[in-house]
Amino acid sequence: MPTPKGDLLQGTLDLLILKTVALGPLHGYLIAQRIRQISKEVLQVRQGSLYPALHRLEERGLLDAEWGTTETGREAKFYKLSRKGRAQLDRETATWDQMARAIYAILQTAE
Amino acid sequence: MNNESKLDKELRAHVAQQVEEYVATGMSREEAERRARLDFGGVEQVKEECREARSTAWLSEIARDLRYGLRTLRKNPGFTAVAVLSIALGIGANTTMFSVIDVLMLRDLPVRNPGQLVSFFESSPDANRPGEIVTSYQRIKNWAALTRVFSDVAGVCLIDRSNVQVDGNVGQARVALVTGNYFPMLGVGAFLGRPLTPDDDRVPGGHPVAMISYSYWKSSFSGNGSVLGKTVTLNGAAYAIVGVAPQSFTGDWVGRPADFWIPAMQQAQAMPEFPTALSKNGSWLRTLARLRPGVTIAEAQAAAQIVHQGHYLETWPHPTPQQAQFMAHSQLLLRSAAAGFSGQRDAYAQSLSILTIVVGLILMIACVNVANLLLARSAARQREMAVRLAIGAGRARILRQLLTESVLLAGIGGSVGLLFSLWGTKALANAVASGPVPTDARLASSWLSFDLHPDWRVFAFTAGACMIAGILFGLAPALRSMRTSLSPALAGRGAPMGSGRLNAGKMLAIPQVATSLLLLIGAGLFLRTLYNLKSQNLGIDRQHLLLVWTAPGQTGRQSAALASLARTVQERLASLPGVVSAGFANKGFLESWEGGGLSEFIKIPGKPPKPGLLMMRVAASPKFFETAGMPLLRGRDFTERDTQEAPQVMILNEAAATFLFGSEDPIGKRFAIPGDNGYPYEIIGVVANAKLGTPQDRRGVEYVPYRQIPNLMRTMCVEVRTSGNPSGMSARVREELRSIDPNLPVLKIDTVEEQLNDVLTQERLIANVSAGFGALALLLASLGLYGVVSYSVSRRTSEIGVRMALGATSGGVLGMVFRETMTLAVAGIALGTTAAFALTRLIASRLFGVAPADLFTFSAAILVIISVAALAGFVPARRASRVEPVEALRYE
Question: Which residues of A touch B (CB under 8 A)?
């Protein structure tokens, strides 16, 4: 499995993508933009990681894809969350939450 | 639009969007494009990674699952070995058995519409099972005249010949004599040249043509395309080869492939030992008919029954009351010949069904074992699963992992099983390919030869069965454990979940013990039967005796010439150094065949016909009894003066003498069989019983001097008593026979023990296979028992620790755990014994000298199971008794 080459932890890019498209269908460019915006420019998603991840998620049935037109009239591939993807997002969010809490708890007590 | 251009378009759209954005911020278009491309990086590289993400997403996950599965299996070598061995045994044994059954019983002949073929059988009141009808050429034509029900009727006779020459090399071959319509009726053509046709079968002795089999063509003519027109020489007569049969067709007799086929009209030339076969009443052809489309077997049978009765009236125009009764009860039976004819099918059917049940039980034990192991392991892995769940692995992901492991296990087990079945089919084919040689060419030898290979369908089926068992038992507990909460499992307390599993494991151990007990009892009964048969008094002195099986009739000699050849053989062999004496008869010992005539047809002056004993006639030489070691109880032996000119004399065996004369002295009494004028025979002696057929032979025997009925000497078995090891003499004997007449075929030379082994082929097969499987079942069951108990001990370490801390002695703990094992064993034994009482009755007919509910066998088998169970239970019990309370509690 090709590993995302970004600064993100393995597995987190998938989670971020799922979360980003949860609101509605987006194309690749917008997904990258949205992640950067929401994370207040902290998380940079490189195209070299983004597109393989999108294709992998589509292949695994977590994302559905369809062709549509952008607001500038250009044809682009839009990704949206599948039912399976939504379930996966819920699970991963819960796990992440748990993990984050655990790490935070450790960081708190370690001192 | 294909995937590639879609991908291209998607990435272009991204860059274009970026360019627009840059332009909007006031950049020049050239600058914007440059920046956008720079931002994006290597387009081709991104494309490549996208392609990879698509294609390898699932492949790489499976590869990872497999790697992980293999690592898990490697980490538990004991578990893996037992599971793989169980699966392999189950698959191997079942594939082997069903391959044999398929070849022998189920597979259709490679002919046109095999479902329309029927063969002819006859059931008569004295025969315990219907025998195939062997009849004359003329009578086959009588059947064929029933054109309303049969579209064609053909005859075939299969003989083994050892004086067949191809290019000057003398060898053995199996020859089928067939009526001219045989190939057209079957719808079998030729691979090369043409098949035999009705035009090849018109004039007695006038058609020296042959069709050879594909494998004979390959082996004797190296598959040479110019074989047509070459000759094969049989009894000195050359037959021109007109065709090569298709590879798939080896004749209609399953297990006895023919090497070549010649027209039935060549009978006298091919079988000089039976010169009258083509006459009206010569019985030598097996009958094979094709039903008309739409005609049922029952309709054809009803029509043919009338002709069948007519044949009897022809033989007995003025039947005696007994003959009339026999005729009235004789019933013609037509049987489907779609799967071919096999004289051995009936004989082997029962053995094969017994072995099928045995392998079925093995498969059951194997599946239970795998299930048990997986149950135990999945419980042991609950913590691992909980950890993996906690760090975010999806449940489906874990299930797939477990599934992969089960499939992996089944795959490895299946591969080993395939090796087992390759080896097993070979061993089984070898085991059934030995057997006594019949002295009469028209009788079927009891051995089989076929190209046996594992059946893929059966392999797939059994592999599937094991895999499904693995998946069910591997996944069910995994699914259950996943629904439960994670925290207790993570905290190291698996016990609450373990208790349910433990019951399932225990429940499974009970039928395992029961089944292995059942197999052990069966094996014990068969082994005792084999032992009883082997140690049965054969009525002859087994030591230092060599049996030389030959067929003087195949040299073409008749009557007096046959007798003098036999006499020469006796004298020459007797004078060899190391030979004490020699004698001969037209029959040998332990020939397996146990036919004969009915005692009610025997006529004795002043006595009513007495039914109830099967009688056979044997032509014997002087010194035959002495050489074989059969004591002459009364009267005298034959001499060379008992010739055709001298008064006809007879020696009865003890069974016949007692049956016919009771306590009277039979010496000097007269004797006749149907067809005799008056009472031609005078009884001159009584000899002790000997086993001419099987070790269970109880027939009455009338011995006559060989010179008085010399034509019986077409077949011959010479008994040679040696001073030393008889086997050492066989080369010398063979050489001597060749120097007497190189055309005299030597069918076989063996000792009494070897002959006994051959005649007991089936009994040995059943006894050895069931003993082997019984031992394996015992091993598997004891491993299962050990696994269950030792697992339970490891789960209860803390409980045991508490008990010991509270004052339980180590002896007490040992007893507690040991009792647990024995409870399971006793439950299994109870179940197994009950089943055995019910089931062994079904094999009663295969047993000899031992009752189906034999107390000794049952007790011995139970004792073995108890000892093994005790051993399997003692090891974990001892481990439990050595638990250090402090350690155990700290573990908690």
Answer: 1-2, 11, 27-29, 46-48, 51-56, 58-60, 70, 72, 74-77, 88, 91-92, 95-96, 99
Residue A7 scores a pLDDT above 50? no
The whole-model pTM stands at: 0.69
Dist CA B326 CA B126 (whole Å):
9
Residue with tokens 């009482």: B837
Pairing status of strand B681-687 against strand B632-635 = antiparallel
Distance CA B783, CA B779 (A): 6
Q: Which long-range contacts (CB under 8 A, 24 or more apart) does A7-10 make?
A: A7/A43, A7/A44, A8/A43, A8/A45, A8/A49
What is the per-residue pLDDT across B124-150, written as a single tens digit (0 to 9) for each? 666 566 778 888 999 999 999 999 999
d(CA B399, CA B287): 61
Rounded-to-integer distance, Cα B843 and Cα B526, Å: 9
> Would you state the structure tokens that stand for residue A24, as one six-digit string?
């509605």
Of the candidates B219, B287, B221, the residue with the CA atom closest to the CA atom of residue B257: B219
Q: Report the residue of B10, B55, B65, B482 to disrupt the A interface, i.e. the one with the largest count of A CBs within 10 Å.
A: B10
Closest to B749 (Cα-Cα) out of B762, B760, B761, B758? B758
Q: Which amino acid is at B448?
A: L
Average pLDDT, chain B: 83
Residues B791, B878 contacting (CB under 8 angstroms): no
Residues 6+ apart with CB under 8 A from B91: B363, B413, B414, B417, B418, B420, B421, B459, B462, B463, B466
Please give the domain boundaries of chain A with CATH numbers for all domains. Answer: 12-109 (1.10.10.10)
Instruction: Using the predicted structure, report yes or no on whether residue B624 has a pLDDT greater than 70.
Output: yes
Nearest to A48 among B46, B61, B391 (CB): B46
B53 to A52: CB separation less than 8 angstroms, yes or no: yes
Other beta carbons within 10 Å of A29: 23
ipTM over 0.90: no
Per DSSP, what are the bridge partners of residue B118?
A: B289, B336
Cβ count near B407 (within 10 Å): 18
